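Hey team,

Sharing the Transcriptional regulator run so nobody has to redo it. Sequence (187 residues) first:
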Amino acid sequence: MLMMLPTPDDIKTQRLSLHLTQSELAKKAGVSQPLVARIETGDVDPRLSTLNKIFNAFEAVEKEHVVAADIMHSSVIHATPGDTIVEAVGMMEPQGFSQVPVLDHGVPVGSISSDTVVRCMMDREKKDVKNLLVKNIMGESFPTVSPTTDANIISHILEKHPAVLVVEYGKVVGVVTKHDIMQLIHR
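Structure output:
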């Protein structure tokens, strides 16, 4: 069996796909940055042990690189704009959710929260609120990201929002909450 060794372009392509600078790769691999630069330009033929260090560094970075698709929940409990408040609350309460996205055929159009429902109840009579439609009181939609968005970026978004929706081809495919980010401590 003939095994092909990586070319300088292969190494550079892998480094760039992991969003590493030459300096970062050098530090993680325990080699110098000028050596990484010379390997990538083809000025030097590296030892097998050096290539091994570089590819071990790549593997370590891949393991620590967590994206939305790795941590999202793909069954997204949601309301629709045409749901009544009673229906929305009936779906939130059993799950212990204080808010859910509002989706229209898989597309995010807003959100509904227990705070919004309580405020609405303060302003109207209970019987009027029960039959009110979600679309009449829903708030802003949660922010959206792609399945390949880095978990660090998502954690910063979650500092200001209760949830982040994961969207692929225009449709919601998952949701990430602060709880999901906190679960990374167990990895």
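The longest helix spans residues 48-64.

Ping me if you want the raw files.
A.
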